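Q: Predict the assembly, please.
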Amino acid sequence: MKRFLLVLFALAFAMPAQAQDKLVVSIWGGSWRDLVAETVAKKFTAETGVPVDFITGGTIDRLNKARLAKDNPESDITFTTSHVGWLYANSGLFEKLDLAKIPNASNLVDEARFSPFHLGSWAYVYTIGYRSDLIKDIKFSTWNDLWNPELKGKIAAPDFDPSHLIVVAAILSGGDAEHWQVGQDKLKALKPNFKAFYSDDANSQQLLASGETPVQDVLSMNAYYMIGQGSPITVDIPREGGVLGVDAVAIMTGSKKADLAYKFINVLYEPDVQAAIAKQKKGSPVVTNAKLDADLAKLPGVFTSPAQWKQQIVIDPKLRAEKLPEWRKWFSENIMN
Amino acid sequence: MPVCGGAGRVVKGQPFLRSFVTPAALCAFAFLAAMAAVLQYSVRTFVPGSLEPGGFALENFADLLKPLYARVFIDTVWICFLTAVFTLLIGYPLAYALVRLRNQFAKSFILITVITPLFLGEVVRTYSWIIVLGNNGFINSVLLKLGLIAQPIQFMFTTVGVVVALVHVTMPVMVVILAAALSHIDRNYLRAAESLGAGPIRAFATVTLPLSMPGIVAGVTTAFAWTFSAFATPQLIGGGRVNMISNLVYQLGFASFNFPFAASLCVAGLTLIVIILWLTRLAMRPLERIGPH
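A: Predicted assembly structure:
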């Protein structure tokens, strides 16, 4: 019994010590967690000897938890979307970054420099993906092709974020994200073509795989994953550009391992790590010096030159954070119902 | 040791029982605190781009009167009603067979068929229904092969599809409640009816059915309330075309960050379900009195 109590006593002291030696990263679960674990975290641990622990959850779940923890954060690093990153920053949850401690950040593309608090981690586009075995006679060279009457009852779009189509409709109508109202009538005209609205990546993939919605406003990485699984899916980037998405990384205010966190972000921006992330997810690196295989570099939605970045539709993350509720409400009231 | 008497006396006689009550009291306190937070959020304004709510106002509740939100409330009640009725119609024969069959194999088969879905979780069960109900799914494939239809029937993203899946989700609860009620009916009543010349159908209609009424009331009420909070099924089968209150709460809170409006929907939904269940209780009180005493 004494021995048992001694072991318990030793464990009680050993466990917190072990936890202190870890860098804690907050990120989405599943393939996103694996992506960071197998690339950045692996190299970071190899270089520093510090293991990385993960806290996983949905975007808003983790935001709420961070709000509750406030100055005593559960994680040292947080990955989130660029616009939700602004909500963290506005609530004082992100530390102001000292770029001198992230030398590799000098190679960051402009589109990944969101704010003094959060930077980009990798990029993708929301664009048009379709089942080439079911949609044979229609090509998508412009977003306007989505309005083709032959696509009646065939399209799906995300129900959690209508910003892509709202901004696309605004651009096609001569406006932009800030003056999105000019595209309202245009988007209303697309209503007959919508069949469903997907709630997450898995739902999007399922609707495409089953052919229920053979055309989607789709996350390029999801489409490439399905192509890798053998689904006959084609990804087209319209001439107006895909809607650029750049996920964000930041250091939590109150992190007691800020120095390690800076090292982690610096490793994230190493060219070979960025190339590995791009290869695994078929997305874009956010640094200019990452070398990609030719097959990967030619994929639509993978950008290797400044000109390619500039061709995409960029929605300012701060504006998006402020406008999304209004856009979401309008989309619900006028398009989904 | 006091055998009967108030709970206070029992606790007084056995002080250790207080420690048993403590976890429940703490849970109750946590639930109340959460409810208070939701209530507080519901009367605050939304500030775009910020996580902190603004000042106090009742505008969220005024917005609930807009046609879109009012329709979601009506749709939710309608879907709950349909689900409760169809679950009862399918669940009653199953519960009856479960209680009355003497063949142990048949009983076990029914029990496993009905109860197993409970262990799968709502998401897995719903994904299974997507495979069954889809345009290229099981039902449409069979009907097309048999030549009974020329085009696939649209089940997905319709109220019919959502109700079908919800009936399956709710079935175990209904069958368990009904089976419990049916098993408490004294068989002597049936024997008496039969001895007086009643056939099986008449005996069922005049004895079993009325005496199982408390179970029916409890089953329908539980199925209604259970369905009211359904999320994954309408989310995945409804595909954004069929929305229930919980889907709207999710969209407003988790996609728009409009937590005050989402909270007002929660409060309105909770109020509505309390009113509906209270009215259901009032309407069914005469039926409950028919049950065994």
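The radius of gyration of chain B is 24 Å. Chain B has one domain: 38-43+51-289.
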